[in-house]
């Protein structure tokens, strides 16, 4: 019984860390369209996605910050196997980004789509390291 507890508890903690990270990412993304509409009057489509270059750049920065916050939470709440959990979280974000590129962001230029994928490893790495360092102090 003790061996199974020693195995199950870290798995549950790791799962919770990934879920909390994804929830944080979603919570940070909630006001995105509203904030972009405040900054760019005519820079958004009717469904809240950017249409001008300036609004697309701010959109990408916002997405980067949301991914950073999610990775930070995973790094902060994971008790062991930090990088394994961050890789799992990164895979979850990759699936999320692929869906976004194929559905709601289909009309965006190719450079926006490439930037979303290119910055994903940086989001995971920087946010995860910041979370791990915060936890150690």
Task: Using brief descriptors, characterize the structure shown.
single chain; 137 residues; 0% strand
Radius of gyration: 17 Å
Q: Structural class, from helix and strand content?
A: mainly alpha
* DSSP strand count: 0
How many domains, in number, for the residues? 1
Q: What percentage of residues falls in helices of 4 or more residues? A: over 70%
Distance between the termini: 33 Å
Low-confidence stretches are none
Mean pLDDT: 89
Order of helices and strands: HHHHH
Strand percentage, roughly?
Answer: under 5%
Biggest beta sheet attributes? none
In DSSP terms, counting alpha (H) and pi (I) runs of 4 or more, how many helices?
A: 5
Q: What does the overall shape look like?
A: elongated
How would you characterize this protein structure?
The protein is mainly α and 137 residues long. It has one domain. Helix content is 80%, strand content 0%. The chain is built from five helices and no strands. The protein has helices at 2-29, 32-39, 53-77, 82-102, 110-136. Helix 3 (53-77) packs antiparallel against helix 4 and helix 3 packs parallel to helix 5 (110-136). It is elongated. It starts with a helix and ends with a helix. The model has no long low-confidence stretch (mean pLDDT 89).
């Amino acid at each position: 019984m003790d061996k199974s507890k020693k195995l199950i508890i870290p798995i549950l903690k790791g799962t919770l860390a990934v879920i909390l990270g994804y929830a944080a990412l979603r919570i940070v993304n909630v006001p995105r369209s509203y904030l972009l509409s405040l900054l760019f009057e005519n820079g958004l489509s009717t469904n809240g996605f950017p249409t001008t270059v300036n609004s697309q750049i701010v959109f990408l920065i916002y997405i980067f910050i949301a991914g950073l916050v999610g990775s930070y939470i995973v790094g902060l709440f994971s008790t062991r196997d930090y990088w394994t959990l961050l890789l799992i979280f990164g895979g979850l974000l990759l699936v999320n980004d692929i869906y976004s590129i194929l559905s709601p962001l289909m009309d965006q230029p190719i450079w926006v789509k490439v930037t979303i994928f290119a910055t994903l490893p940086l989001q995971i790495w920087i946010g995860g390291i910041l979370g791990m360092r915060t936890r150690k102090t």
